[in-house]
From TrEMBL:
Keywords: Hydrolase, Iron, Metal-binding, Protein biosynthesis. It comes from the Bacteria. Belongs to the polypeptide deformylase family. PANTHER family: PEPTIDE DEFORMYLASE (PTHR10458:SF22). Transmembrane segments: none annotated. Removes the formyl group from the N-terminal Met of newly synthesized proteins. Requires at least a dipeptide for an efficient rate of reaction. N-terminal L-methionine is a prerequisite for activity but the enzyme has broad specificity at other positions. This is Peptide deformylase. It holds the Pfam family Pep_deformylase. The active site is at E139. It comes from Kaistia geumhonensis. HAMAP family: Pep_deformylase. One of its GO terms (molecular function) is peptide deformylase activity. The gene is def. Its cofactor is Fe(2+).
């Protein structure tokens, strides 16, 4: 397995709409494993292929507890599609591996029904709520060229983009108040 490079804001690739996967083969499964290793090492709980510069509809997620001795429970989502969502809303503090060290509260549907292909190409459907539902929505947004900061006010979003653009030009890291949350 190989660790992949995660692209960050202001890279314009993050705004690309990802294309569907047409074939799942051994090469695809190696890529899924590389994505999962990259996500764990970052550390994060979700990673979309576009975040490593590959505009395909592929996501890895693992929201299982990261405590010693706890089994991992990765999900490999190929061509994921949210087919329905509940009316109830929930708010989570989100972060993103492509927008490092910045966190903000985002309100989303509290539950979703997701249809996807697993790593063997079999169609699956799951009902998700809580953190898993939030993570799924966050990662599917990536596949559509949308970032969690798009849910913030225009003022806050523009401030974040300006800080990352300025930092990219100067080769520094943008400064935000520290948080302990995991990033998606």
């Amino acid at each position: 397995m190989a660790k992949l490079d995660i692209i960050t804001l202001p890279d314009p690739k993050l705004r690309l709409v990802s294309a569907p996967v047409e074939r799942i083969d051994d090469e695809m499964r190696r890529f899924l494993d590389d994505m999962l290793e990259t996500m764990y090492e970052a550390p994060g709980i979700g990673l979309a292929a576009i975040q490593v510069g590959v505009p395909r509809r592929i996501v890895t997620i693992d929201v299982s507890p990261r405590e010693e001795g706890q089994p991992r429970a990765p999900l490999f989502l190929i061509n994921p599609e949210i087919v329905s969502s509940v009316d109830d809303r929930s708010t989570y503090e989100e972060g993103c591996l492509s927008i490092p060290d910045y966190y903000a509260e985002v309100e989303r549907p509290a539950g979703v029904k997701l249809r996807y292909l697993d790593r063997d190409g079999k169609q699956q459907e799951i009902d998700a709520d809580g953190l898993l539902a939030t993570c799924i929505q966050h990662e599917v947004d990536h596949l559509d060229g949308k970032l969690f900061i798009d849910y913030l006010s225009r003022l806050k979003r523009d401030m974040v983009i300006r800080k990352f653009t300025k930092a990219a030009k100067s080769g520094t890291k943008p400064e935000f108040k520290p948080h302990a949350s995991e990033e998606m």
